[in-house]
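Budget justification note: compute hours in this period were largely spent on complex prediction jobs such as the one shown. Inputs:
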Amino acid sequence: MSDLTQFTIAEARDRLAKKEFSAVELTSAYLKAMEAARALNAYVVETPDQALATAAEADRRLAAGTARPLEGIPLGIKDLFATKGVHTQAASHVLDHFKPPYDATVAANLFDDGAVMLGKLNMDEFAMGSSNETSWYGPVINPWRARGSNADLVPGGSSGGSAAAVAAHLCAGATATDTGGSIRQPAALTGTVGIKPTYGRCSRWGIVAFASSLDQAGPIARDVRDAAIMLKSMASHDPKDTTSVDRPVPDYEAALTGDIRGLRVGIPKEYRIDGMPEEIDRLWQQGAEWLKARGAEVVEVSLPHTKYALPAYYIVAPAEASSNLARYDGVRYGLRVPGDDITSMYENSRAAGFGTEVKRRIMIGTYVLSAGYYDAYYVRAQKIRTLIKQDFDKAWGQVDVILTPATPNAAFGLQEMTADPVQMYLNDIFTVTVNMAGLPGIAVPGGLNAEGLPLALQLIGKPFDEATLFRAAQAIEEDAGFTARPQRWW
Amino acid sequence: MSVDQATVRRIASLARLKLEDEDVPRLEGELNAILKWIEMLNEVDVSGVEPLTSVVEMEMKMRDDEVTDGHIPEAIVANAPAGEDHFFMVPKVVE
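Corresponding output:
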């Protein structure tokens, strides 16, 4: 039998329905691929027994004609999502041995639609990072390598395990989360498609919290259609998350008509940053040309507060993180390191349990929220956030979507950026504005750079207009003709 | 604004993070580099601007004030590093 891991979600769904192969055969093919790809360190836990049992149930449903939308589709789940009775640690030492007695709503939605969980995917600790190098379980290696080179590259982060697993065909699709770019940046660095939906589109219940006003779940998939299929299942209104939105989930797959005639596309001039590699600029122009050739209208727009989004983010996100991570105290779950009294027990447990980047962000967050600094930092950052949102609101008077590069660079080497935190943070320069304004954004591969590494474009949409983003992204995907795959070296 | 080593220690204490002595100068440098970068926000005129409180406009949701969950003590303490009889155990806090 040919390698079943080659099929996209849409293809596997149709072939399972035609009984060309069984769900158990499909899951087995992925489990075999995962075993052979442990060098990538994409999974922190594999759950083969559970996967095969779920796949067997899927086969019964397929035989009975009661298949659900994702019946028998093997997925990887980011370690940030609670999964009942299964390792859920946000790739942190501080959550050692934590097994939640419930599923996150997004995970439950996928399982209720028939998806099979293959295992939990590696990530930056507490989703804090842009290279997947802050994980307690060690870095994820990008399946892509530069042409003629054996050097390991990072897959981006924080959803680096999700992106690497999708790119290397170690799952048909993966869940991910995005607080400042953690879906779109790793998708861009691995030639996959990732969408961060509008804030409130997916429930945050059962997702380990990083920065609650920015966090949002979304899929990483092989193509735009698969991302649309996954988001349809992931999104829901959830009474357990008061910020989840009570509005119907559209059929995103049905929106993929290829027709973008009359679509108004904005090019924000502030995204032309100094030192941007020429190949990224060229891809950006090429993307605008592709859309124009299909009948879209391309206009320049202005988002004047763009450059302030990232520094404002590095006040808001650490502030919320320092508050959210206060719960890790060695009492209710996770790691406990004894001390002389309760305070030293807290301090020892947290010192041993959190990694360097997480501690750095807790420190910044605690500082900007501390007495005397709150107005100067946190309140000012939230005011700037209002200005960033107003920039977009104004642009939506002129355009339907905004086209930008997804990242300022292609995949980079391990430890290349770890010495300077601010340099690492700059990876999110094109993605973070979207989180600050709560908007949807999608990263879609546009081509390869001179070294043979993937580059991506980002489309930003109006609130809850994911359908238009999918349609426009698929147009780019088709015109880019991106079919490149990482050469298997693992 | 910048932090000195005494401030680094005070923040760590507020954050309940034990610091080793050698961590302090490193964190001082890193925090100051980040705070210096953030200073560019002072260029922005924010007078008359309301701080953002919600990215999505929506009515505050109301629900009935009633018990909908409970009687699951085993599930609640299942992950505790130390516990007994459905209680979390901690070092002595009252003399």
